[in-house]
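Summary of Year 1 activities. Much of the first year was spent building the evaluation harness for sequence design. The harness presents a backbone, in tokenized form, and records the residue chosen at every position. We chose the following record to illustrate the format because it has been used consistently in internal testing since the harness was completed.
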């Protein structure tokens, strides 16, 4: 089980537009065995998780360790995860939900277990909200020096170009 990947997937899940089953299936395109099981109820539950999980990323961005920990603990209490060891493909590994779990239950379990592990291993300051206005996407910072500020290269480039143009304009008006 790659908890870091699960933490990063939680940010992708939070950023995803899950307005209907087709949108959820598109989000799960790299996991066709889950995509084909997606339902309207999964979409509803995942949209609720998005609303509940966003404050955890915002607390991290604000440097509020207590908010991050309390938020994750509250979500873990509301969405208990039941990890299981399995060897269905010949190797021992962990699944975060029992067989028969819904798509939403599986994704919620992966997200919360991934974020909980990330916060314990790397610290609560590794979650963030993109610094490029007007973007509001979230990200998981896995950089060695905790330097990530943007959700994507696109937002980073856009912010850097805007800052460059602002500096050029300031020099030109002198």
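For this record, the design step produced the sequence shown next.
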């Amino acid at each position: 089980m790659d908890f870091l990947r699960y933490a990063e997937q939680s940010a992708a899940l939070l950023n995803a537009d899950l307005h209907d089953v087709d949108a959820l299936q598109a989000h799960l395109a790299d996991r066709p065995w889950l995509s084909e099981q997606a339902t309207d109820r999964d979409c509803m539950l995942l949209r609720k998780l998005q609303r509940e999980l966003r404050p955890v990323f915002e607390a991290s961005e604000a440097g509020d360790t207590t908010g991050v920990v309390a938020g994750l603990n509250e979500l873990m209490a509301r969405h208990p995860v039941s990890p299981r060891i399995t060897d269905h493909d010949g190797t021992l590994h962990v699944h975060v939900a029992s067989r028969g779990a819904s798509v939403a239950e599986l994704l919620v379990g992966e997200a919360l277990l991934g974020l909980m592990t990330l916060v314990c291993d790397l610290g609560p300051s590794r979650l963030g909200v993109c610094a490029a206005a007007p973007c509001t996407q979230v990200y998981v910072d896995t950089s060695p020096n905790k330097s990530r500020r943007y959700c994507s290269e696109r937002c980073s480039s856009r912010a850097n170009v805007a800052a460059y143009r602002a500096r050029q304009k300031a020099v030109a008006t002198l």
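The longest helix spans residues 40-61. Quantitative recovery figures across the full test set are reported in Table 2.
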